[in-house]
Amino acid sequence: MTVTPVGDALVVEAIDSERVTKGGIIIPESEAAKRDLASVKAKVVALGSRALREEERLGKEFGRTCVIPRVGDTILIGKYAGYTLEVGGKKVRVIFDKDVAAILEEGDE
Question: Are 97 and 10 in contact (CB under 8 A)?
Answer without folding.
Answer: yes
